[in-house]
Structure formats: C-alpha cells, structure tokens
Write a structure and sequence with these properties.
Rossmann fold, single chain, about 15% strand, 17 helices, 15 strands, alpha/beta, disordered N terminus, 5-stranded mixed beta sheet, about 425 residues
Length: about 425
C-alpha cells in the first residue's frame, strides 16, 4: 500500500400508499458508496476518511470532489497494489504503516474511518479487526472505526448510512437522570443544521443534537430518552442501530419543501406537546417566505412531466415535493430501495397513477423513459449525457446530495435546481 401537528397526514383518498411496486432486478447504473465521503468529510471537521482501495478508488474521489490544490482534504486512499493482491505483502502491516504516517502528519485527526472498498473485500482484509488494533495503538487521542463503501452496495448514499451506523456504538449512553432529547440524523449542510436547530429551539424542543456532529468530541448521547428524526431517507441501518440503543423514531415526511419541513417539525412538536398556536407562530413566517419564493418556479414547472431513475433514494420525497408544491407530474419514480416504514408518509402523499419502481433494470427503464418522453429526467451521470444527446432534459441526481435542499429557506433553491435545466433547454432551442 501507499498513502494516497400530526406526524403525517392520513393517506389521501387517491394516493400511492397501497400501490403495487414494480420490482426490477438487472443491470444498475450507480456510483459506489465511496462517493459519500465527498460530503461527509466536510461535516465532521476533525475526522479523516482513509479508503483502503485501488487507484481507481482514488481517482473517483478526486474527480468527484473537485478539491482545489490549495485545500487539504480530510480523505485519502491507501492504495492496494499488485503485491497486496498477490499476497506478497502483509496488508495489515502496510496499513499500520500508512496510518502511522498519516496521524504523525495530521495530529488534528481525532476520528479515523477505515473505509472498505471492492479491492479490500476481494483480498479479505479485516478492517474491523484493523480498526480495533489501531484504536488500541493510537487511543485515546484517536478513535478508529470502519465501514464499507464498496461499490457492491445498492447505491452511493449507502456510504453515509454505513458511516453513521458505525458511529452509533460509540455514542455515549444517557446519564441516569437524563431528560428527553431530540437527535436529528443525517448529514446536513451547516446552514441547514443551524436553521432547523433554531426553529426547534424556538418551539421549545430540546436539547437538540445532530448525527453526525461537527466534532468527534461532540458525539451525541443516545438511549431510551432519545427521540430521533431522520433528515435523509436512506439511513435504514443507522435507524436500526439507534432502535437497538432504545431510541424512538418519530415518523414524519422528510424536510423537503414547505409541506415536508412543516410536517417534519410537527412530528417533534407533537411529541413534545407544543401547542398549535405556538407552532404556527414559529413556523408560519418562514413557510410564507418560502411559498413566495417558489411562486416563480411554479410558473415554469407546473404541468411538466418528470421521470426518476433509481439512484440516490431521495426520489420519493423529491417527487412528493415537486408534485404537491410545484405542480410537476411524476410519470415514474424509481428508487434503489424502498423502505416502506420510513417512507410511509411520503408514499401517502404521492399522486394517484404514479408508477413506483424499486431496484433497477436499466434497459427496461430506458425503454419506458423514451416511450414516456418526459420533460425532465432525474438520473445519474452515466445516463445523463446519452439522454441529453437524444434531446431529453436531465438533472443529475448526485447534485441533490451536494446542495443544501432541506428546510424552508432552501425550498425555492430546490425548485430552481429543476427549473434550471428546463430553462437552459428552452434557451438552446429558441
């Protein structure tokens, strides 16, 4: 190696909550879970992500991140080369050497993630055991954890889920005299985190903590007195780990758009017994500003038809927002994995007649997309350019992970992300 008010509204009379799902199994077109490091490394400011993988893994991260040469990112790749694959080198000894050099050079690192990849899994490198060994060597100043970001997983957002799930066993237990607390789960841009935290505080809900935290020293407590809200729909393993700690999930739509954000906040307000009058007084001004800001995009997007390829697992909440608040018509909403329990409130709000597909058979979905001729398609980078060449307007799904889109203040920005490619297409054909 080398260093390199109600929780959710009842289902509409006509909704997708009970609609059969088209399940597909075939060729997939997705990024691997390593991609999530690009936004995670910005979040935990004293953490470092060391990918144990190939030069291809390193090139993927470098190209996806677009890190400026003046910046020193908090991720790198310990490259598995031919000697490692052939068993000619002791991979564990090499890994220990790389980690030692890294920590000597970067003493500010307090949390080190060893991130598995396809190559490390091929040679059966036990990163869990390596993390335990390295934690003993470099602790207590540095905690070493591991998770898999392998491309064998379903989709690239599962990298975040695996990362956060690996953190849960390290969360401190609640003190015996702890009162009730709220945990917001999912990597959010700092501006979004500040906004949502401020609204929750104004409602009288708290203490409010976030996972992941901004510092490894600020790991939130978790236990039976903890209620948690998921901020992202792809955190199934993390939710399961929190449930095993005794934490209680608050069922809610996800905080996309005015409606999603209001119902997400309402789930916490209901659990804390906040009055309707106080809730409305706190949330109404921000909701009204967001509605006004979105009006210009409704004029452009209302009535347009949209098709989602399965990629990020954000597809169903996005389709709900676009259909109910912007007026877009979802033709098909594909998602890599459908967690019915976590998405129950979202499914209940999708318009009747929407085709929902789970998994992927890319050729069949391309055929359905071409036949439908939607106005805009949400898909991964691998499909976007070919579809654009056919005259179909696309939106890169991965951009929705890099951009702050949650909360009231970002509702118009989220709508603009879909208006922009349509506006560009109209300008090109004019």
């Amino acid at each position: 190696m080398s260093a390199g008010a109600a929780v959710a509204a009842p289902p509409d009379a006509e909704s997708c909550s009970q609609v059969p799902v088209l399940r597909e199994r075939g060729q997939r077109e997705v990024f691997c879970g390593l991609t999530s490091i690009v936004w995670l490394h910005r979040k935990i400011q004293d953490a470092f992500f060391l990918v144990v993988g190939s030069r291809t893994c390193a090139h993927l991260l470098q190209s996806a991140a677009g890190v400026m040469i003046f910046a020193e990112p908090r991720f790198a790749t310990a490259i598995i080369d031919e000697r490692d694959l052939a068993g000619l080198a002791d991979a564990n000894a090499e890994l220990d050497r790389v980690v030692g050099r890294l920590l000597a050079r970067r003493p500010e690192i307090k949390l080190l993630f060893l991130v598995g990849s396809c190559p490390s899994e091929v040679i059966k490198l036990d990163l869990k055991r390596a993390a335990t060994r390295l934690s003993q060597s470099f602790g207590p100043n540095v905690r070493v954890l591991n998770y898999s970001g392998s491309g064998i997983e379903t989709t690239f957002t599962q990298g975040e889920d695996a990362c956060l799930a690996s953190l849960v066993p390290s969360l401190p237990p609640e003190p015996a005299d702890a009162g009730r607390s709220l945990l917001v789960v999912g990597a959010l841009a700092e501006i979004v985190e500040d906004q949502l935290g401020r609204l929750l505080g104004q409602l009288g809900i708290g203490p409010v903590r976030f996972l992941p935290p901004r510092s490894a020293a600020s790991l939130p407590q978790a236990g039976p007195r903890t209620s948690y809200l998921l901020a992202q729909p792809f955190l199934g393993d993390t939710a399961r780990a929190l449930d095993e700690r005794g934490a209680q999930r608050l069922d809610a739509p996800f905080p996309l758009g005015v409606e999603g954000t209001t119902r997400w906040l309402q789930a916490a307000a209901t659990a804390w017994g906040i009055s309707t009058a106080r809730f409305d007084a706190v949330t109404a001004p921000a909701a009204e500003r967001a509605q006004r800001a979105m009006a210009r995009y409704r004029a452009l997007l209302a009535g347009k038809r949209i098709f989602f390829f399965p990629d990020s697992q954000l597809e169903i909440p996005l389709a709900r927002f676009l259909a109910r608040e912007i007026g877009l018509v979802p033709v098909e909403v594909g998602t890599p994995y459908l967690h019915r329990q976590h998405l129950a409130a979202e499914l209940a709000m999708l318009p009747a007649g929407t085709t929902i597909s789970e998994g992927q058979h890319v050729e069949r979905q391309l055929d359905r997309c071409r036949a439908a001729r939607p106005d805009i398609v949400v898909c991964g980078l691998g499909l976007a350019n070919p579809l654009e060449a056919e005259g179909i307007t696309t939106k890169w799904s991965i951009e929705l992970l890099f951009t702050p889109i949650q909360g009231y203040e970002q509702a118009a920005d989220l709508a603009e992300l879909f208006a922009r490619p349509l506006d560009r297409r109209m300008r090109l054909v004019a």
